[in-house]
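Name: Potassium-transporting ATPase KdpC subunit
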Amino acid sequence: MATLLRPALSLMVLMIAITGVIYPLTVTGIAQLAFPEQANGSLVRDAEGNVRGSGLIAQAFTGDAWFHSRPSAGAYATVSSAASNLAPSNPALATRIKDSAAELAVAEQGPVPLAMLTTSASGLDPHLPPAAIRYQLARVAAARGLPVQTVEQLLQAHIEQPLVGPPVVNVLNLNLALAQLKH
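Structure predicted for Potassium-transporting ATPase KdpC subunit:
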């Protein structure tokens, strides 16, 4: 029995050391060297250096003076990050989208962009398509007393082209830049 137990325990300790200590520390060290910003949470700081959020996580913005993110099924809480799990045939989903569309609708601008009505798979996607931001331009410019062209230029400066997929705008970064604009 002892002849079987000793090698088994030795192998178990060795594997715990490799997979539980050596490998995680190695991967963490490489990530810190190669991608320090991403490894530390892609934190977004304001002009004073205060952390305002992560460029990877959406935040709730309310009021007419801010660009709004897409809806979140988990109220933007990272602990409950998930989709709503409502099927397209679910009446609750249709009701929520209809109510949101009525609330966000702007006269003479056409239908509300779909990205502003639907949640992302994680419920925390910080990006919107440029069209969804443009839909909000007039409201934000009016609330801040700025010309629409000024806010449009700010939008243009914040359009990102990912390696794969259509152009997007990080709403948190755009709102931080908006806060820096002089009225």
